[in-house]
């Protein structure tokens, strides 16, 4: 081991008091500058505000709804149950013949010969009016009464429907039906069956005026019914 030996002319470095004071003064100056340069915080205060109650317009009450009238619905009559048996339609023969009656104008009464002086001509008696023509309406020919029955329509029979037909027929001077007009009918099928039968098979005794056959209209009704 070697002992430290002091070399001649070498001195150890040391801290001088003057340097220490200078260092302390510099640090104090820095802290002071930092203290004075720090920002100042100012607390924020909000401005006061005023609260007011503004009255609102009153809301009008809702309008009452109109009262709806309830209509009573009458249930329709149920259709009868279909039946496989067909009855013969009943033919009604109301008298509704339309005939035109023309009146014959009466001739003027004859004028008597003029008199002379104070003589008064005799007054001629009026002639009696001519008799009105005798009108007889068309009637069903009993020899063909059984042929008045129309054929029951198949679709109506299968559906179990019954009905009534009323027609006006123009009867010619030979007793045959020349024209058929529909007055009322339950269905088109019932009317067609009646119209075809009337034109083909219906026979009448023609209407007459003073014994002479004339054309005339007559209203006929036919009822289609099923057996119970």
Can you describe this structure?
The chain is α+β, with helices and mostly antiparallel strands. It has a domain at 94-103 and 133-224: TolA/TonB C-terminal domain, CATH 3.30.2420.10. It is built from 3 helices and 9 strands; from the N terminus they run αβββαββαββββ. A 4-stranded antiparallel β-sheet has the order 1-9-4-5, covered by helices on one side. The chain has a 3-stranded antiparallel β-sheet with strand order 2-7-8, with no helix packed on it. A hairpin with a 5-residue loop joins strand 4 (163-171) and strand 5 (177-185). It is rod-shaped and about 190 Å long. It starts with 16 loop residues before the first helix and ends with a strand. Mean pLDDT is 72; it is low at 5-11 and 80-106.
Summarize the structure.
Belongs to the TonB family. This protein has 228 residues and is α+β, with helices and mostly antiparallel strands. It has helices at 17-37, 154-159, 188-201; strands at residues 90-92, 135-136, 139-140, 163-171, 177-185, 204-205, 207-209, 212-214, 216-224.
Large-scale geometry: rod-shaped
Report Rg.
Answer: 66 Å
The name of the CATH topology of the domain at 94-103 and 133-224 is TolA/TonB C-terminal domain
Q: What kind of oligomer do you see? A: single chain
Topology pattern, helix = H, strand = E? HEEEHEEHEEEE
What's the CATH architecture name of the domain at 94-103 and 133-224? 2-Layer Sandwich
């Amino acid at each position: 081991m070697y002992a430290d030996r002091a070399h001649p002319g070498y001195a150890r470095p040391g801290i001088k008091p003057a340097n220490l004071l200078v260092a302390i003064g510099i640090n104090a100056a820095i802290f002071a500058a930092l203290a004075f340069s720090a920002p100042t915080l100012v607390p924020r205060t909000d401005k006061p505000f005023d609260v007011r109650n503004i009255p609102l317009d009153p809301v009008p009450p809702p309008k009452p709804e109109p009262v709806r009238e309830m209509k009573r619905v009458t249930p329709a009559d149920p259709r009868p149950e279909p039946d496989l048996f067909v009855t013969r339609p009943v033919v009604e023969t109301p008298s509704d013949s339309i005939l035109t009656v023309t009146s014959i104008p009466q001739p003027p009464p004859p004028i008597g010969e003029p008199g002379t002086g104070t003589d008064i001509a005799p007054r001629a008696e009026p002639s009696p009016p001519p008799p009105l023509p005798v009108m007889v309406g068309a009637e069903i020919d009993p020899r063909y009464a059984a042929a008045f029955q129309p054929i029951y329509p198949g679709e109506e029979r299968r559906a179990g429907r019954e009905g009534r037909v009323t027609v006006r027929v123009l009867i010619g001077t030979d007793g045959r039906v020349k024209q058929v007009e529909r007055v009322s009918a339950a269905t088109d099928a019932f009317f067609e069956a009646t119209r075809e039968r009337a034109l083909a098979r219906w026979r009448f005794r023609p209407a007459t005026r003073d014994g002479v056959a004339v054309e005339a209209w007559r209203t006929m009704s036919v009822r289609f019914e099923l057996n119970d």
